[in-house]
Amino acid sequence: MNKELQGIFKGFSKLSKEERLQALQEVGALTSSEADYLSRGGLKDTTLGEKFIENVIGYFQLPLGVATNFNIDGKDFVIPMAVEETSIVAAVCKSAKWIRETGSITTEVVGSDIIGQIQCAKVKDFAKFEKQLLSQKNFMIEIANREVAFGLVRRGGGVKDIQVRRVPRGDGTDMAVVHVLMDPCDAMGANIMNQVCEFLKEPIEQFTSEKVTMCILSNLVDSKITRAVVHIKTIDADLAEKIEEASLFAQQDPYRAATNNKGVLNGIDPILIATGNDWRAVEAGIHAYAARDGQYRSITRWFRDGEGGLKGVFEAPLIVGTVGGVTTLHPTAMMCMKMLGTKSANELSRVIAAVGLVQNLGALKALTTVGIIEGHMKLHTKNLALGAGAEEREIPMVQKKLEEILAVRKRISLSNAIDVLKELRDSATRASSHPQ
Ligand code: MEV
């Protein structure tokens, strides 16, 4: 265990922003110029943004925080999270601390290949198409690797297999879908996969005399699955049962599964964003995988281990890259990647899966005990104060009053904040017009 990191994790949330940046520099997670860059508000010059997208008019800023207390596969991490929702970072740090004290997080990636699809919408004879295509499979793998994926081949990756799937058109006939399986090494692989598929269009048409109608990668990468396991060795029996019940709820009921998975993604998306990864692709893959047996289910499972402990498992495709794209172009993403210190795309994927699972644990624990409002709303009081129009100096007073209301009524809203602020200002006016 990294003693230095454990040291800065302690009381990190109580530090000021400047002290946090200082602490991160002390453990080598940030350089002084990176801390300075963050202090100055990050990227401002839109030249880079204009290289990424069209019609640029500025940047949209999200808060960047760090998740502390994570020890994954025996290694400590400082985990950057770019997210706007109150209490996500606090909740995940709290659960990670609990696990650090009483359990472990282990992870693995099973499989290595991503999937590309080549559609032939109207094949005359599927069996003939399949036979012709598979007879040329090795040749097609060879030319795709030689002409397009040679960079990956040099690093031990590249196209590994070509398969054919029969997909019913719904009118009694079939379409043929060719799957290209490719190891993208440390890249997310979308661009190279699309190039491989488009390159194979011509040979496929030549070998089969059928028309290729479209080529694109698939985000449902069930050929490369990331798994994270949390094991809490001792836990209150009642709490363990409640979490198991909550998990069953999310397994069996799609309405609950959607919200459960949103909570898991609360941990996943912020790291994807901070590291410049394509969160839409990961979201699409996770949701599709969650529905793979025909019913949308939870991508996490929690169960008692039979020895007084609790186990949780996250299992889904979580395809990320550590080379190419925004990850290696956006200065904040590059800084976040460095801060994380993951050595490969697989390690990054494993860390992200672990954070998603731990985020889920925190949500289930809160939901099955005190409820979500208590922790969330306590942290949300500042947003409400700001939303009501409170000025910097008024915020602590409005927050304090809102906390009192929350403690008594168990709920607070923006209208409470507006009332509290009005009262505060009225009494300040009264006091100034009637000085003692
Ligand atoms: C809120 O952002 C996330 C939760 O709804 C997740 C869940 O219900 O498991 C609390």
TrEMBL record:
Domain of life, per lineage: Bacteria
Catalytic activity: (R)-mevalonate + 2 NAD(+) + CoA = (3S)-3-hydroxy-3-methylglutaryl-CoA + 2 NADH + 2 H(+)
Any one Gene Ontology molecular-function term assigned to this protein's record: hydroxymethylglutaryl-CoA reductase (NADH) activity
PROSITE patterns: HMG_COA_REDUCTASE_4
EC number: 1.1.1.88
Pfam families listed in its UniProt record: HMG-CoA_red
Gene Ontology process terms (BP): coenzyme A metabolic process
Keyword field contains RNA-binding: no
This protein's pathway: Metabolic intermediate metabolism; (R)-mevalonate degradation; (S)-3-hydroxy-3-methylglutaryl-CoA from (R)-mevalonate: step 1/1
UniProt entry keywords in alphabetical sequence: NAD, Oxidoreductase
Annotated InterPro entries: HMG_CoA_Rdtase, HMG_CoA_Rdtase_bac-typ, HMG_CoA_Rdtase_cat_sf, HMG_CoA_Rdtase_NAD(P)-bd_sf, HMG_CoA_Rdtase_sub-bd_dom_sf
Family recorded in the similarity comment: Belongs to the HMG-CoA reductase family.
Protein name: 3-hydroxy-3-methylglutaryl coenzyme A reductase
Organism the protein comes from: Bdellovibrio bacteriovorus
